[in-house]
Amino acid sequence: TGTQRAQRLQMEHKRNRKVARLIRRKQRRLANLINLTLVKSYKRCSGSKSSNAQRIQNDNTLRYYQGYHDVACIVLSTVSGSTPVRVRQSVKNDLSSLEQTAVATGLDMPAAILLQISEYHLRDCMRSNFAQLQTTLRLTMMPLIAYFDPQVHDFLIACEMEPYFALPWVITWFSHEVRDTELTKRLFDFFIVSHPLMAIYVSVAMVLHPLNREDVLQTECEFSM
Questions:
Q1: Whole-angstrom Cα distance, residue 75 to residue 182?
Q2: For all residues of the chain together, what is the average pLDDT?
Q3: What angle do CA 127, 130, 132 make, to 5 degrees?
Q4: What is the pLDDT of residues 202-212, one digit of tens each?
Q5: Does the predicted TM-score (pTM) go above 0.90?
Q6: CA distance 61 to 57
Q7: Is 174 left (phi over 0), alpha (psi -120 to 50) or beta?
């Protein structure tokens, strides 16, 4: 009936508003995690009473890049058991204002993990630009592809294909491409305990996977025709 339809639409509207509020709350929490992590990195990087302008010019300063939020999101969804707590005055006196904020919002553990990943594994991604990372891709991916599969390598060279197609995979640890969160978390486990170049090695393996290789060679056949 008309009354039932009106009630159903009203309930859907309420549910949509509830979902929207939940999404906004999660987005704010993710933004707070990223801000806390970067501010902590600035404090570590400065080590002295240098100005903000000097720290920005420092090559060691971590910088946000498009895709960093994908990494932060996986860390936050994995280590989100720390709920916001009220910091006791005795503990508060021993903590800086930044640490107080992290503890009070339950972001101290995720921020510590994300900072460690950022300063070690993602260091080249968080520079002022991707120039060094792009050079690394050119020096590693194409030679490795040439070693393991000369046919695919020759086709990529003929197409003037640079290895920059793997850049989103490397800078997000595949979290932007892989929609299975549990699989992404397993990849993160693997990358965390591995060398920082492991994401590039996995990218090479992805290109040369039999199914992907078949797609590439099929493209080659169509291209030659």
A1: 12
A2: 80
A3: 85
A4: 999 998 988 88
A5: no
A6: 8
A7: left
Residues in the chain: 225
d(CA 17, CA 23): 10
Please tell me which of 15-19, 70-74, 177-181 the model is most confident about, judged by mean pLDDT: 70-74
Q: Is the pLDDT of residue 136 over 60?
A: yes
Contact between 146 and 153 (Cβ < 8 Å): yes
Specify the pLDDT at position 203: 93
Structure tokens at 81: 């058991």
Question: Residue 146 corresponds to which tokens in the numbers above?
Answer: 């040439």
Answer for the pair 126, 65: CB distance below 8 angstroms, yes or no: yes
Q: Token digits for 208? A: 């040369």
Residue located via tokens 């591995």: 194
**pLDDT tens for residues 79-126?**
875 455 454 544 444 446 667 767 777 888 899 999 999 999 999 899
- Cβ atoms 45, 61 nearer than 8 A: yes
Amino acid at 110: P
Tell me whether residue 203 is exposed, middle or buried, using C-beta atoms within 10 angstroms of its C-beta: 0 to 12, 13 to 18, 19 or more. buried
Which DSSP string do the residues of the chain spell out, in sequence order? -HHHHHHHHHHHHHHHHHHHHHHHHHHHHHHHHHHHHHHHHHHHHH-SS--HHHHHH-TTS----TTHHHHHHHHHHHS------PPPHHHHTTS-HHHHHHHHTT-HHHHHHHHHHHHHTTTGGGSSSSHHHHHHHHHHHHHHHHHH-HHHHHHHHHTT--GGGGHHHHHHTTTTT---HHHHHHHHHHHHTS-TTHHHHHHHHHHTSHHHHHHHHHHHHHHH-
